[in-house]
Amino acid sequence: MCPNSRSVRREISMRLVFASNNAHKLEEVRQIMPAGVEVLSLRDIGFTAEIEETGATLEENSRIKAEAIGIDGVFADDTGLEIDALDGKPGVYTARWSGASGPEQKIFLSNRAKALHELAGVENRGAQFRTVITLILNGKTIQVEGVVRGTIATEERGEGGFGHDPIFVPEGYDKTFAELPAEVKNSISHRGRALAKLVEILKQ
What we know:
alpha/beta; single chain; 5 helices; Maf protein; 7-stranded mixed beta sheet; 7 strands; globular
């Protein structure tokens, strides 16, 4: 390509594997991705091994998950809730912050309860969700990041979403992620913003 020429945009037509066993994330990713990108799950490709997230950062965990699949055309994400008053915690430990075990919904509830407890009486309720996506394609490894600022509500609100969605109010809104329609959440969320950057890379 001539150095002075602009990148030629093209319609995307490809199949990618999303390296996650999280059904909620898979559904969200499929809703956000453009029609030309078919997103396969680990189950779709017969990958059943558990991937240990041993990284100390979102960047490390995202890369670990993508590389564990051992194929080209795969992407993975790692997401953390970073609370200002808690020096960025729970961060990389967001999904297992409370130490609870058992059914998924029980773990979600326990994690949210811990966040509300830690912030009881705290005036500064600023926080952000941050997603890091690692893409392995054509022998190259690329990482992109999406961030959405907001605040932690004083109580749970809403029935939608998953994880910490019922207590996170995105900047510019007065409703939690769990109260917003899925299409609105996906258009402004950390994962949606990271995926938008990923799509731009795929178009090049």
